[in-house]
Amino acid sequence: MSEQRDQRHQHFETLAIHAGQEPDEATGAVVTPIYQVSTYKQDGVGGLRGGYEYSRSANPTRTALEENLAALDGGRRGLAFASGLAAEDCLLRTLLTPGDHVVIPNDAYGGTFRLFAKVAERWGVEWSVADTSDPEAVRAELRPRTKAIWVETPSNPLLGISDIAALAGIAREAGARLVVDNTFASPYLQQPLALGADVVVYSTTKYMGGHSDVVGGALVVGDDALGEELAYHQNAMGAVAGPFDAWLVMRGIKTLAIRMDRHSANATRVAELLTAHPKVTQVYYPGLPQHPGHEVAAKQMRSFGGMVSFRVAGGEQAAVDVCDRAKLFTLGESLGGVESLIEHPGRMTHASTAGSALEVPADLVRLSVGIESIDDLLADLTQALG
Ligand SMILES: *Cc1c(COP(=O)(O)O)cnc(C)c1O
């Protein structure tokens, strides 16, 4: 307990490396070991040594990650899952019962949309879509049984910005919970709980892991009772992060701050190059002063992150051609790794939104700007644009 109190005075970079990571008591190992174990010896029936009995319920490597996640977001409880969508599913089934309603953003990760539209809806959960960058548009969608307002900021793939503090006020008045998917920003760039959100969602596959070598998800909450309910459902449904995956995410988090600084710096340069390029008709990056969410982003983010989207003159085929010509930017889905990626959302990550209110422009290209040399990245984009 006293150790936890001390942590509150530590800065993000220190917590990232130390929170939840006290040297292993048995060996002194400086790094939390991978406890690749399913069950634990009991000292007499029910006599648990470290509180561990079975690794779906709790595992020491996962616990270290979960404590770390809670500390980084200034939360009371962190929970680690097998994927971002597993975390979202656990949250949905904890917060909602049939007939309940959720407001979801008109620009969201395709899999989040699919989870609501194709899965949760079959269980009687109602949803409607709003432009969450406009708090009044969100208020207009509220219903008597609205239990949650769901936002992604910055959003995927159009980098829209939602005002977390304003939406928290609307949610509070409506008796609903504000859920923020903070995957694009990471807790280093943005702290949703401090801005009034109730739940923070992560795909740790992305910036938290940071090396394109693990799939994982997380929830962080500022309320003990909700944390308990989520932990109950996490164990009851079972989509937990395995020990090796938890360890990889922890390893990634240790360098999160310096990686995000570089991602943001490189993405700023990329956005400037694209803005000046004759073959680019529009650039989406919240760091650009002309971005409609720039002011809100500047207020609630430390810097603007590593994701940049843009539209290519000449339409869909021209956008696909840019993706095909890029060399250093690897053509692939996902984001948030040290290596730069390029993709065509309409045909790849967001194909599931076709024909819906979340459909993305056909001439859109999305970049996950990595931490390579900025000169090499700019040269590759210049040749790919032709
Ligand atoms: C990738 C992603 C998810 C889903 O996470 P998985 O780890 O792929 O299940 C959710 N939200 C956002 C913003 C994402 O980028």
TrEMBL record:
Keywords: Pyridoxal phosphate, Transferase. Its cofactor is pyridoxal 5'-phosphate. It comes from the Bacteria. GO terms for molecular function: cystathionine gamma-lyase activity; cystathionine gamma-synthase activity; pyridoxal phosphate binding. InterPro entries: Cys/Met-Metab_PyrdxlP-dep_enz, Cys_met_metab_PP, PyrdxlP-dep_Trfase, PyrdxlP-dep_Trfase_major, PyrdxlP-dep_Trfase_small. Its EC number is 2.5.1.48. The keyword Plastid does not apply. Gene3D superfamilies: Aspartate Aminotransferase, domain 1 (3.90.1150.10), Type I PLP-dependent aspartate aminotransferase-like (Major domain) (3.40.640.10). The keyword Calcium does not apply. One of its GO terms (cellular component) is cytoplasm. PANTHER family: CYSTATHIONINE GAMMA-LYASE (PTHR11808:SF15), TRANS-SULFURATION ENZYME FAMILY MEMBER (PTHR11808). NCBIfam families: PRK07811.1 (NF005871). This is Cystathionine gamma-synthase. It comes from Streptomyces benahoarensis. The lineage of its organism: Bacteria, Bacillati, Actinomycetota, Actinomycetes, Kitasatosporales.
